[in-house]
Amino acid sequence: MLTCPAGHDSAATDFCDVCGLQLGAPEAAMHTAERTTPTAEPLGEPCPQCGEPRSGRFCEGCSYDFVAGFPVATVAPLVTIAPVAAPATPPPAPAPDESVWTATISADRDYFDTMRSEDDDIEFPAHYPERAFVLRGTQVRVGRRRASGGSGPEIDLTGRPQDPGISHVHVLLLARTENTWALIDLGSTNGTRVNDGIDPIEQGTPIALTSGDRIHIGAWTTLTLTSSKQNRDNAS
After folding, report:
1. Pick from 105, 191, 107: which is nearest to 153 by CA?
2. Is 153 exposed, middle or buried, given 0-12, 13-18 or 19+ CB atoms closer than 10 A?
3. Residues whose CB is less than 8 angstroms from the CB of residue 209 and which lie 6 or more positions away in sequence, other chains included
């Protein structure tokens, strides 16, 4: 049995049947083979919440904030939401005296400048068209659809430019009596703020909303809620 330059015992007589080096080749050939062997690039810092390799300030998997180091949310789900099949026919139009609530999504430069840190590598989007969602039903989830599929939130903020600070299920809008709405943070990683508040709202605690309230989530996303009844009253 022969021995290759790398020290392996080989039954073959031409090339090592362990590492493939030519038998009887000079030692330099072994060093050349070692130099040309590709090595894997090291992965980024793993996310402490989901283990996803770090590629920026916010984790692509769960939106954990590496800079601020927000702890893992431990709030249990407050509301059980079963998937609802799309209706076969459009819902009926609201009565004339019934208000319709709309959430308008926009990129908020003032909120972005207030919340950003010196270590923040996120840029404010150069172009972000406003989108409007009519609030229907009794529960409206706001967040990002998962890449793995499944049912997404009713207000799905997936798409480019995408705010990386938004959790997959960030907040819940909950219908209340007298055609009003409340806001619940369901344990988002980076928190939720309302109007000019700097501190995030308490997770799991309903916050009553009025027409004109602004809900800030992620790095620069703002939802502005308006009621058609309030708009009619102001116009009169």
Report:
1. 105
2. buried
3. 173, 180, 181, 182, 183, 215, 225
Q: How many angstroms separate the CA atoms of 18 and 24, rounded?
A: 15
How far, in Å, CA of 74 to CA of 186, rounded? 10
Residues ≥6 apart with Cβ < 8 Å to 151: 83
> How far apart are alpha carbons 212 and 111 in whole angstroms?
16
Mean pLDDT computed over 135-140: 94
**Degrees (nearest 5) of the Cα angle 120, 124, 125?**
140
Residues in the chain: 236
Q: 96: which 2 tokens?
A: 């004339």
pLDDT per position as a tens digit, 185-222: 998 988 999 999 999 999 999 999 999 999 999 999 99
Q: Are 166 and 143 in contact (CB under 8 A)?
A: yes
As a whole number of angstroms, the distance between CA 122 and CA 218 comes to: 11
The whole-number pLDDT of residue 220 equals 94
- 9-22 pLDDT, tens digit per residue, is 766 676 665 555 56
For residues 215 and 223, the answer to whether their CB atoms sit within 8 Å is yes
Higher pLDDT, 86 or 169: 169
DSSP state of 98: S
| pLDDT band of 235, cuts 50, 70, 90 | low
User: Nearest to residue 193, comparing CAs of 222, 165, 235?
Assistant: 222
